[in-house]
C-alpha cells in the first residue's frame, strides 16, 4: 500500500473512532458529564445568567450581557433569571424610518402581549414566545441538558403558560415535585428537563412553582461594589439568607453587582462584572456559602456572561 494513502487511511479511521467515542460520550453525559447523571438536581451546580434576556446583541439599553439567550445556551449557561412584562407595539418614525417600539402597558390593556423586558419594554423587548422558542429549539438539538428558569413575572400565570405552550417548550418542562428531585438522568429520560419557577403567583399552572415559597433559597442580590463578593472578609455576609429563607432544596447564589446609578453606570456594569466573574472568585464565594448555608449553590447567577468563567467554576464545584 502507498505509505501516504495508508497514513491517510489510519488518520481517517482514528478520526472516525474519535467521533464515535465523542458521540457515545454525548449520549451518556448529563449537562456535559456522565458524573452528573446519578446526582439529583439539588446536588448539581448550574452556571446561570441574571436578566438573561437583556443583551446588547438584541438591542437592550444598558444590557446585562453582550450576547443573548441563544449564545448563552451555546456557551453553557443552564439557569436563567428572566423578567416578563406586558407590552404593546407601536410604530414611530425615527431618523426618517418607521421603527417599532414596545410601550409598557397593564394587564387590562387591549392588545397587550407578553414580552421579555427589563424594567421597561421601551429599553428592550423580545416577544416571550419567541424567546422561549429559542430555548425549545436548543433543547431539541441538545437532548441531555437540564435547565432551571426563575421568572420575575409581571404577567399572569395563564399568559406565561400560553407562551410556554406556543413556543414548544412545554414538552420539556418538569412536572414533578420541588420537595425532592430525581436524578438528572431520570429528568432526561422522562423529558422533564426544564424546571419553571416564578418569584410571585403561579395561579393554577401545576408545573409553574412559587420559587421563594419553600422551593428556592437565595443570597442577597443588592451588592453595590465588587469587594463585597471578592474580599474574604465579606464572603460570609454575602451568603446570608434572603428570600426563601433556608428551607428550599435549591439554592440561588446571586453573584452580580448593581452599582450606584451614575453617568458611568453602563461602564461600571462591565467593570464590576469583570472583577467578580473570575473562576477563582466564584469558587471561593461558593465555598463560603457552602460553609454558611450547608450546601453549594444550585444556580450561580452572573451578569455579563461573556466575561470571566462561570462555566469553569461550575465544573470545578461539580468535580467534573
UniProtKB/TrEMBL annotation:
GO process annotations (BP): lipid metabolic process
UniProt-listed InterPro entries: PI-PLC_domain (IPR051057), PLC-like_Pdiesterase_TIM-brl (IPR017946)
UniProt-recorded name of the protein: Unannotated protein
Organism: freshwater metagenome
Pfam families: PI-PLC_X
A single MF term (Gene Ontology): phosphoric diester hydrolase activity
